[in-house]
Amino acid sequence: MDKTQDTLYLNIQKAKKGNQIAFSTLLDMFWNDVYGFQLIRTKNENDAEDITIQTFSKAFDKIDTYDESYEFKTWLITISKNLHVDLIRKRKRSILESTGKNNDAIKKVLDETPTIEDNLINEQNLADLLQDIKKLKPHYQRVINLRYFNELSYADIAKELNEPINNIKVKLLRAKKLLAEIIKNK
Fold first, then answer.
1. Is pLDDT above 80 for 102?
2. What is the spatial distance between Cα 51 and Cα 6, in angstroms, rounded to a whole number?
3. pTM reported for the whole predicted model
4. CA angle 22, 25, 30 (to 5 degrees)
């Protein structure tokens, strides 16, 4: 094994033990490979970025299942490819459901005016979500707010927080997971 392979192997072993720095290092090492692969497949920067984040999230959740007889990059690309296939299937299913015999779904899409009930539900859901976000540590709250409420790009968030862009990606990934746990445990 060469030095790069030794470093990779060591980081994988640390990541399997839950070392966050190792996760971050692996993300740095392979982000461009996975993102580039998805950009070619999706031809859409937002989809490519979302799928890449989901890829690393799933990979880090399932790192114990990684078989070291395969290349780590190949394992990540396989996860990424499967996530993209799932996204395509989901979109096709959604389109098929909306174009079925009942055209009510199409009419609802065309009439985007929210009803009074819709507004009340949205306000209640937003209030609940904001309460859940407040349960996160302040640095996670901040990155969630900048990304989803201020709608800043990763680069703009990195500039705002004076941190490397990959740190922002990892923080956002962790924040979303923690928020999902909070919501799930309600």
1. no
2. 28
3. 0.58
4. 125
Among the listed residues 25, 46, 68, 34, the one whose alpha carbon sits nearest the alpha carbon of residue 151 = 46
pLDDT value of residue 89:
83
pLDDT of residue 76: 92
Question: Of residues 125 and 61, which shows the higher confidence score?
Answer: 61
Rg (the chain; Cα; Å)? 20
Packing angle of the helix pair 45-61, 72-98 (nearest 10 deg): 120
For residues 10 and 67, membership in a common domain is answered with yes
Number of domains within the chain: 2
Give the residue carrying structure tokens 């922002």: 168
Same domain? For 59 and 145 the reply is: no
**List of residues 6+ apart from 179 with CB closer than 8 A:** 132, 133, 136, 140, 144
Looking at the structure, tell me whether residues 26 and 103 fall in a common domain. Answer: yes
C-alpha torsion sign, points 156, 81, 32, 69: positive
10 and 101 both lie in a single domain? yes
Residue length of the chain: 186
Task: Please write the tens of the pLDDT for every residue from 140-171.
Answer: 889 988 888 888 888 899 999 998 888 888 88
Full domain range(s) for residue 106: 1-112
Whether 95 and 118 map to the same domain: the answer is no
